[in-house]
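task queued by scheduler; priority normal; single chain, no ligands, no partner chains; default sampling; output format set to structure tokens
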Amino acid sequence: MNEDLLDLTAMVLESSPVGEYDRRVVLLTRERGRISCFAPGARRQGSSIMAACLPFCFGNYKLRQGRSSNRLVEANIRTFFNKLREDMEATCYASYFAEVLKYITRENNDEAALLLLAYQSFKALESERIPRRLIRAVFEIRTLVIEGEFLPPLEADGFSPAAIQAVDHIARSQIRTLYTFAVNESVLLELEHIASVSMGRSLNHKFESLDILKVLLQ
């Protein structure tokens, strides 16, 4: 009987070693929001779930529910996002996005929109067709929109019509079409400012991966 088996569509937000051979994995799932699980033997050579515990992996995860913890028993990965782990800058951006998502999501919440945003943002980071600074601004603004924490900028606040139009696109577009536009440097600077101020006002949290990213980009 598999009554206690969860079948989840999920992305790995965090993976950390436990003991000599195991891992603790934090997943963002479509069905159960953010959920943690124990992956026994995931660090053993030849483990069938070793690759599924890599950060940023996306696919189907099967967890067995226990009284005090969940146990990863099987996974079918659809997208590994290998490029994000091969490029240090891309790794830092993706790690920051994952840290934000881990901070704001909750177990048993409907986090489907944020899961899709993470997937599309990671695809954009891999494609290299859009500046990563813009990807970050888009991710931050749309995350706050989804959470109901975003206040749209106004021309009266000194922002250009182009920047306001770009923010409206970020806020209203389907997530699958978010990363299909370009802006000039001056508008990008405005978007970065809007995103940064909004994140500080709404979340007021120190993200360690962002500090690393800032050092890398100096």
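post-processing summary
- The CA atoms of residues 37 and 70 lie 5 Å apart.
- The first helix runs from residue 82 to 86.
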